[in-house]
Design a protein that fits this description.
Number of helices: 4
Distance between the termini: 21 Å
Shape: globular
Oligomer: single chain
Helix content: 25-40%
Length: about 130
């Protein structure tokens, strides 16, 4: 059974990237509009991605954190209070890295937490089954 993942990203860029790369591996629900967040059963997800694009998104982070145990959190706002990354269950996503490096580190972290097998291994398995 595929794990359920919730993505909150009002800029839509990272949610699109994550969905494109991991869409075949996870059952992904995306929330792109902050006013619609209450329409989603967030607590039914195994983990979440939260991208903070505005200070108001921190309130959404608190809301999502109360419903899932693991959150991958990223922001390109340089003035954000980085102490939020010290909250239990919050995993830092470095959004200042190049796309390839970002995805390699994300894949490694997902594997480390036993949330996914490495993407390379998945691709190798697909080739063997073809």
């Amino acid at each position: 059974m595929r794990r359920k993942v919730f993505i909150y990203d009002t800029s839509k860029g990272y949610s699109r990237l994550i969905s494109k790369v991991y869409g075949e591996v996870f059952d992904i629900t995306q929330c792109k509009y902050e006013k619609k967040i209450n329409q989603y059963p967030i607590e039914q997800n195994d983990f979440a991605f939260v991208i903070i694009n505005h200070r108001d998104d921190i309130l959404k982070l608190i809301q999502i954190r109360s419903k899932v145990k693991i959150i991958f959190l990223g922001s390109r706002i340089k003035s954000i209070d980085y102490s939020i990354y010290n909250i239990e269950g919050i995993i830092n996503l470095n959004l200042f890295e190049r796309r390839k490096t970002f995805l390699m580190r994300l894949d490694a972290k997902l594997n480390e937490l036993d949330l996914i097998a490495p993407i390379q291994t998945l691709k190798e398995n697909e080739n063997e089954n073809s």
